């Protein structure tokens, strides 16, 4: 667990960095006075081609700090809130002081991107995709150390202007209903913060509860349409949202009980309503960035056992849905030559495997039934080296682990530096590796695994191979959750 926490330290942005193994420096201080832009418009085959210039819409706003998302330096509210919900869940039960500092750091940034006065939620800082047509570079167009951006001498209209002066994009107009996936998981992150601080710092806890309630109350629940995740949506094409509202309402109810707030039962009923809606939606996802239902079900079951008048469902239905998720994994694993529940030709193999491992433990908590314990351990073992490549997908953990992650700061720090605790994507479809460019300015790094590829899958420990070797905060937070649950009875 300490290893995965260290990765979050390495992902810090802003002035309050942890130098760590990569010798990180303060970065992106211009985010303190960032300009807000209207939602960018995209098209093209990959859904990520800018079709018009960016349009200033407001600001300045202070969005300095937070965690960068992956091997690049863009910051996403949706991914941060997902990771914070998992980290907060762990911290609530295990008051580790190092993890506590990371959770407080993440909540500090979330407090910036939610402007309670104007009721505006900012969804993203920075833009990954640049535009040759409109004359600007995006984050993915430049391989550099993050602190290098602060040294740029640029003016509006210069190609690198948005590299230093990163645009901020709101999730919607001030006061307008919020995309429910965002509203639910942001509320959950704040509400878990309220639970963690309920006895340590009641004043701060009440502040987090206020923020959580405001965001949750602004959720759009009819005529939802395309969800807001990232710009472009193609980066993170989430379609599930009832689970996020279940998670948000559940954590609000738990926070309210911890702070003796009379709204607790109302939020608990909301959680049961959204759980029922999620189960009835036919969604077949399992725990990962795109589905938070397992985490929500586990805590909601505990609430329902204490008695929630008027609840729309009971513990039995929640347990059945957790079984449904796990049974789907067990069935897939029996048919897989790798004995893994996830398809090794799709993205997020490591994260989803850790999700199954965590869900098996959560189900055991809810029911006392250990039937999935061996399955969960098998999925965790897959990520730690019990796979066709013999490689752990957690950097620095196990006898063989990635040495060439697709991560700018780690690559430029040099081969002796280790991005300890980072979880990479893992094996992926072989077609995803065709014609991957080598980033200009990057240091060469590769270790061959081709002889072990097969069944349409490939893993490459290569700097260019972002489909298999790029780490991310959501991958790592799910691993941290799985490790924590495995360590507890």
Can you give a write-up of this model?
This protein is α+β, with helices and mostly antiparallel strands and 489 residues long. It contains 15 helices and twelve strands. The strands form five sheets. Strands 5, 6, 7 and 8 form a four-stranded antiparallel β-sheet that branches. A two-stranded antiparallel ribbon has the order 1-4. A hairpin with a 5-residue loop joins strand 2 and strand 3 (49-50). The chain is globular and about 60 Å long. The chain starts with a helix and ends with a helix. 55% of the residues are buried. The mean pLDDT is 96.
What is the number of beta strands?
12
- The secondary-structure element order is HEEEEEHHEEHEHHHHHHHHHEEEEHH
Computed structural class: alpha+beta
User: What count of helical segments does DSSP give?
Assistant: 15
Overall geometry: globular
């Amino acid at each position: 667990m300490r290893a995965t926490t260290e990765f979050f330290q390495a992902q810090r942005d802003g002035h309050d960095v942890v130098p760590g193994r990569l010798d990180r420096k303060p970065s992106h201080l211009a985010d303190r006075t960032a300009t807000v832009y209207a939602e960018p418009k995209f098209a093209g085959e990959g859904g990520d081609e800018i079709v018009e210039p960016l349009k200033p819409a407001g600001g300045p706003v202070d969005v300095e700090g937070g965690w960068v998302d992956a091997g690049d330096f863009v910051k996403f509210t949706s991914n941060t809130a997902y990771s914070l919900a998992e980290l907060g869940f762990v911290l609530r039960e295990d008051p580790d002081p190092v993890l506590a500092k990371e959770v407080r750091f993440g909540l500090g940034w979330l407090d910036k991107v939610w402007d309670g006065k104007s009721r505006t939620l900012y969804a993203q800082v920075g833009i990954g995709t640049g535009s040759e047509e409109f004359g600007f570079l995006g984050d993915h167009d430049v391989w550099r150390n993050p602190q290098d951006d602060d040294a740029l001498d640029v003016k509006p209209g210069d190609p690198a202007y948005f590299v230093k002066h990163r645009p901020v994009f709101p999730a919607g107009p001030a006061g307008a209903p919020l995309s429910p996936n965002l509203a639910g998981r942001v509320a959950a992150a704040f509400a878990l913060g309220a639970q963690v601080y309920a006895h340590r710092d009641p004043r701060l806890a009440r502040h987090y509860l206020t923020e959580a309630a405001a965001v949750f109350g602004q959720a759009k629940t009819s005529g939802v349409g395309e969800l807001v995740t990232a710009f472009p949506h193609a980066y993170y094409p989430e379609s599930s949202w009832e689970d996020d509202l279940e998670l948000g309402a559940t954590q609000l109810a738990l926070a309210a009980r911890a702070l003796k707030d009379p709204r607790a039962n109302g939020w608990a009923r909301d959680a049961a309503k959204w759980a029922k809606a999620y189960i009835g939606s036919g969604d077949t996802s399992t725990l990962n960035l795109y589905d938070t239902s397992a985490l929500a079900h586990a805590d909601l079951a505990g609430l329902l056992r204490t008695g929630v008048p008027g609840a729309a469902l009971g513990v039995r239905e929640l347990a059945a849905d957790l079984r449904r998720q796990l049974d789907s994994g067990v069935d897939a694993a029996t048919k897989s030559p790798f004995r893994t529940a996830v398809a090794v030709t799709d993205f997020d193999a490591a994260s989803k495997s850790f999700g199954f491992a965590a869900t098996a433990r959560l189900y055991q908590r809810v029911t006392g039934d250990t039937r999935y314990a061996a399955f969960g351990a098998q999925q965790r073992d897959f990520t730690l080296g019990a796979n066709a490549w013999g490689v752990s997908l957690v950097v620095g953990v196990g006898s063989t682990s990635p040495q060439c992650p697709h991560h700018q700061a780690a690559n430029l720090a040099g081969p002796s530096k280790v991005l300890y605790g980072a979880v990479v994507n893992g094996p992926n479809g072989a077609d995803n590796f065709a014609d991957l460019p080598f980033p200009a300015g990057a240091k060469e790094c590769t270790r061959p695994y081709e002889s072990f590829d097969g069944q349409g899958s490939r893993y490459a420990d290569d700097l260019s191979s972002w489909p298999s070797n790029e780490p991310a905060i959501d991958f790592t937070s799910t691993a941290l959750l799985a490790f924590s649950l495995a360590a507890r009875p």
